Amino acid sequence: MKDYRRRDVALAVSLSGVAGYVDAIGFLKLGGFFVSFMSGNSTRLGVGIATGHWTMVRTGLTLIGLFVAGVVLGALVARKVGEGRRSVVLALEAALLTAAAALISAGLDAAGVAAMVLAMGAENAVFQRNGDVGVGLTYMTGALVKAGQRIAAALTGGDRWAWGPYALLWAGLSLGGALGATAYLRVGVLALWAAAGLIAILAAAKAWRERRAV
C-alpha cells in the first residue's frame, strides 16, 4: 500500500470496516456462514463434504458463487467506467446494500442475503488496478502476512512503519465486525441501512473529488 496516498488508505480502512460490519451481520443471520469471508465458507464447505452435511455444502457453494459473481460485476463496472472512477463502484455497492436491507426488511431473506454477498464481492473492485485487486478489502489474511513481512523488514533495517497500513486494514475489519454484531443484536436487519448509508456518503464524496480533479 506504499503507492497509495493517505486519503486512499483511509478509504480502504473505512471499506474494510464496512466489510467487517456487514460480515458480522451476515454471520449472525446465517448462523455461522459469512457474506464476505469466503475462506471461512470454503472451510465449512469442505467440512460439509467430509461429514455429509449437504445443506452446509449447498449453502457454502451458493455463497461462494454469489461472491465471485459480485467480484465479476464490480470488475466489469470498473473496467467500463475506468478504474480511476472509484465512486461508481462505491455507488454500485451502496445500491446493493440498500437492496439487501430493503429485501430482508420485506421478508425476502434469501434475495437480501444474495444482495449482501454481491455487494461484498463488488467492493473489492474499488481499488482495482489493471484488472487486478490493488487492496484486498474483505479478507485480512493477506494483509496480516504483509504486516508481518514489513515488521520483519523493519527489524532488519527497513522502513519502520510500512506495516502500519496493513495493520489498520485488519483493525478496521475487526472493529467493523464488533460494531456490526452489536448493531444487529440491538436492531436486527435495520443495522444494514447504516452500512448502505455510509457507502452512499463515501460514493458521493468520492464523486465530488473526481469532478474537481477533472
- Could you give the count of β-strands? 2
* Sheet with most strands: 2 strands, antiparallel
Portion in helices:
over 70%
Strand order of the largest sheet: 1-2
Low-confidence stretches: none
Report the span from N to C terminus. Answer: 25 Å
- Please tally the helical runs, counting DSSP H or I stretches of 4 or more residues: 8
Provide mean pLDDT, rounded. Answer: 90
Strand content: under 5%
- Radius of gyration, in angstroms, nearest whole number: 17 Å
Shape: globular
Structural class: mainly alpha
- N-to-C series of helices and strands: HHHHHEEHHH
What is the count of structural domains? Answer: 1
Structure description:
The protein has 214 residues and is an all-alpha fold. The chain has one domain. Strand 1 and strand 2 form a beta hairpin. Helix 1 packs antiparallel against helix 8 and helix 4 runs antiparallel to helix 8. The radius of gyration is 17 Å and the shape is globular. The mean pLDDT is 90.
Write the layout of secondary structure elements.
Elements: H1 6-30, H2 38-51, H3 54-81, H4 86-105, H5 109-123, E1 128-129, E2 132-133, H6 141-155, H7 164-187, H8 191-213
Antiparallel strand pairs: 1-2
Helix pairs in contact: 1-5, 1-7, 1-8, 2-3, 3-4, 3-5, 4-5, 4-8, 6-7
